[in-house]
Write a structure and sequence with these properties.
Layout lengths: L6 E6 L3 H9 L6 E7 L3 H11 L3 E3 L2 H5 L6 E4 L6 H10 L3 E5 L6 H14 L3 E4 L6 H11 L6 E9 L19 H17 L5 E8 L5 E9 L5 E7 L8 E5 L2 E5 L8 E5 L5 E4 L7 H14 L9 H18 L4 H5 L2
Parallel strand pairs: 1-2, 1-4, 2-3, 4-5, 5-6, 7-10
Antiparallel strand pairs: 7-11, 8-9, 9-10, 11-12, 12-13, 13-14
Helix pairs in contact: 4-5, 5-9, 7-9
Amino acid sequence: MMMDQPITWGILGTGDIARQMAEDLRLVPGAELRAVASRTQDRADAFADTHEIPVRYGDYETLVRDAAIDVVYIATPHPRHCADTLLCLEHGKHVLCEKPLAMNAPQAARMVDAARKHGRFLMEALWTAFFPAIRQVREALASGAIGNVRLVVADFSYRAAAGPESRLFNLELGGGALLDIGIYTVALADMVYGQEPERIQASWSPAETGVDESAAMILDFGGGRRALLSTSLRHDAPQEALIAGENGVIRIPHRFSQPDAWSLDTGGGPATTTFERTGYGYHLEASEVTECVRQGRFESPIVPHAMSLRIARTLDRIRQQWGLRYPADETDH
């Protein structure tokens, strides 16, 4: 691929997150949004007209057969992620798939295996990892700024203005707090410790539809290293995170999943760094994908396959403690 040749993108899905990505792709140097696909032509046309996308398809398979598209962003419901990703990979497309990468670890493993088999890029869209604040937090941790980390505390909770008919509470659509927003807390713990927990204690409150509406988790990584995580769709909370080491504390304030600030305190009081935001923030992960594809990489060093597989296995272990199973769990082992 020529270095000055644009990386062309297609989007599967026309929901809110697809809309935000469509807007943010305008901010990515060297990226060109060529096409969108929906399950109906009317929705595809409306989305394409709104976002000035030249090509629109009323089904997914036609988009993935478009030879002019390099990368597909998958913004379909959780239970479709595996099948949609495999479809894209089999047709030679690179893939950025929304989180969670899959409904369970066996699906995630199949997706990674397929990406390697077909020699195509695949990344889970954990956008948090690409915000400048998180990049600096990672650098501070790597430099030993707070010493050996002993504790991660993170909460992602909000009161969802949605009833039981919503996707958020629909078992068939992969609803529940853990897969939708709790994954961010698990991903933060993985970013800090870089390994699966040795032991997990998890409690939950089921919604009337059978999914988890709130949960609390203790992940024990051995050697006195733990993560205290919580998530809920039923109450508001600060959505903050804390990383405590033997020599200091890092704090990530409100909406740690998309932070515009972080602070470091090693005993002399907190030193805070803030950032100006452009766009929604999805252009940051899209820029990583575009650059990796241009360089011929098949995975990102920031959100590698191994990280997504660890997270998927941890989410499975948490759900196993609750006895929460999705339809995909009955067919994927």
